[in-house]
Amino acid sequence: MISRVVFVFLLPPAAVFAAEAVTPREAIGWKLFFDPILSKPQNTSCATCHIPEKGYESGTPLGKGAYGDVLPRQAPTVVNLGAAEYFFWDGRAASLEEQAKGPIENPIEMDLSHAEAAQRLNADKTYRQAFAKAGVKAIGIDDIAGAIAAFERKLTTGPALYDAWLAGDRSVFNASQERGRMIFFTRGQCATCHIGRNFTDGDFHNVGTGTAADPGRSAVSGDDYDLGAFKTPSLRNWKTREPFMHDGRFATLDEVLEFYNEPREGALGETELDPLGMTPEELADIKAFLETLNGDWPDLAPFAKAWKTLLTGGEAP
Ligand code: HEC
Ligand code: HEC
Prior knowledge:
The protein is mainly alpha-helical. The protein folds into 2 domains: 19-156 and 298-312, Orthogonal Bundle (Cytochrome Bc1 Complex, Chain D, domain 2), CATH 1.10.760.10; 161-291, Orthogonal Bundle (Cytochrome Bc1 Complex, Chain D, domain 2). The protein is 39% helix and 2% strand. The chain has 14 helices and 2 strands; from the N terminus they run H-H-H-H-H-H-H-H-H-H-E-H-E-H-H-H. The protein has helices at residues 2-10, 14-18, 24-33, 46-49, 96-105, 114-122, 125-133, 141-153, 161-166, 175-185, 218-221, 253-261, 280-291, 301-312, and strands at 204-206, 229-231. The chain has a two-stranded antiparallel ribbon with strand order 1-2. Helix 3 (24-33) packs across helix 8 (141-153) and helix 12 crosses helix 13. One heme C binds at residues 38, 44, 46, 48-50, 63, 65, 71, 73, 75-76, 78, 81, 87-90, 96, 99-100, 103-104, 109-110, 148.
């Protein structure tokens, strides 16, 4: 009982975190993330592909751009990326700022040149007023990407059951979750790559999912060592982020676990996985453990409120 009380003080619920003051830049970033103004035909926003209800992913194997073109990869989530060093499945962007500029001008995603994006926002009275409150007089692409990145850095998921366990309350896990935790960190070898606060080493690995059409990291690094390697995704809040993998090939977590149990032969490059030979009960235990990584999604209400305050000039109630 006592440890539970301590836990409540150490890790307040997500809503408490999110209620921290939202800066003008973050509020603008929130608005831009949901605004189709950043796409040439004004029909696609970041949130068209990164849908909050789908864990900021698309809910489909491959997303579609402003003109209906099917994208070559699945949209990854944009939460819990504050500490990431590489962005995109192949790590070709080095910051959230750099990343955000990509989809805006990508001809099959939003198809708006950076100059035109800046021009549109400078011509928009509401954005001009909002950016002025953030100290920006002439809006440029760096201000746009900077605001979106500032918003994204605020997108962290709230404490999950696993965090209560980490904080010292061993009683929160049932027997299956505890067995699953042991397998995850030992025999299952999952923590070789899915490690740290967000269950990712932020690095690139070959788990046998590369194809000739999409060799992953090697196309960026030019190094054969990286053939078939993709960025390790976070396992926090996996629920609602289905389907899984860079190409959305697995519709459910069960399919992912079966794959790890018997990795495919003949993958591009050299897979780092060994067959696990787990029983169905052991796979169910891993799944039970992974369930404990699901916490609250970020509360967006404070951003909406801060945006309103920016425009009215008043203080948030
Ligand atoms: C048409 C769909 C689409 C739109 C619109 C879109 N994205 Fe994405 N996003 C993707 C896909 C697909 C990827 C993965 C591409 C890759 O790895 O090559 C991605 C990757 C990302 C990543 C990298 C995440 C990581 O873990 O590396 C971030 C961050 C992101 N998008 C943010 C944004 C922002 C901000 C916008 C709006 C300016 C945006 N996206 C617009 C589909 C989209
Ligand atoms: C050698 C490194 C490595 C090991 C070991 C590993 N993973 Fe992964 N994991 C990855 C990479 C890389 C991806 C992304 C592959 C892709 O997109 O094609 C991934 C993807 C996933 C996904 C899909 C997440 C998403 O957002 O699409 C889940 C779930 C997952 N791994 C769970 C596990 C579990 C459970 C284990 C242990 C049984 C495990 N992984 C072992 C590197 C690893």
